[in-house]
Amino acid sequence: MKPLVPIAVALNLTLASVSLHATGPAHPLQPSVPRTVTVSESQTPPVIRAGLLQSTLIVLPAEEKVANVFAGDTVDWVFDGGHVASRFISVKPKTANGSTDIHIVSDHGNEYTLQLREISDDADAHYDSKVLIEPGDKAAKDRLAQLPVFVPASELDKAKQEAAAAQAAQAATLKSQQAKEETYRSQYPGSLHFDYLWDEKKGKELGLQQIWRDDKFTYLRGQFQETPALYEVKDKQPSLINFDFSNGLYTVPKEVDSGYLAIGKQRVDFHRSTEGR
């Protein structure tokens, strides 16, 4: 038996430069219906009936793809795995009555060995047109449910390209966000309005230091011994309003035209000036 020779199936290696030296079949060859063969490490490799110059398609289980292929005779047999990683390998004998073995390694780490035989001189002229491989060992079946252990080079390159594209898109998004933040920070001081009026003497007694607003919020800052309650006044009717308070700063999630701070009997009224409205 000739030594096994690896086949670059992903490169569509067909060895077309080798001349045919077949004499032709004794009778017309006929394709058989597709059949399933079970491959087990503990059993003799199944025999695949190949027809002279006819293609036999070997198909791995749906969960697997071909990672590598080895064969004993790469001169009198053509092996074609296509240009991309797939479940399929095409086998074609170029001489009559030849035989060889083929050893397939899947991306899940399963190994399938088959015996190929050209049948031109057989009384039965039917050759295998399609052979579906089924693993016969439990360990091999279990591996089908796991993630692949081998990644085809084409898929690895694609994954690298997709990762690089994703990183570039993320970097572009981050740069855009940073540009927006820088623009906002540069323009933000112009959106601040210090147009509130209040009794500064009462404000000092309570601890109030400043009141201002931007386009969305109203802010009150001070040094308070206790946190005063904050009221908004509309139509001369006061009502408590929601706010965040931290380190002496009130942040009210809206523009307040008029209101007051109060602790007990102490009270400081404030309102926006007429020019600020």
Automatic annotation (TrEMBL):
Annotated signal sequence range: 1-22
InterPro entries: Conjugal_tfr_TrbG/VirB9/CagX (IPR010258), VirB9/CagX/TrbG_C_sf (IPR038161)
Keywords from the UniProt entry: Signal
UniProt superkingdom: Bacteria
Cross-referenced Pfam families: CagX
Gene3D superfamilies: 2.60.40.2500
Keyword Signal: yes
Listed name of the protein: Conjugal transfer protein TrbG/VirB9/CagX
Naturally occurring in which organism (per UniProt): Terriglobus saanensis (strain ATCC BAA-1853 / DSM 23119 / SP1PR4)
Taxonomic lineage from the root: Bacteria, Pseudomonadati, Acidobacteriota, Terriglobia, Terriglobales
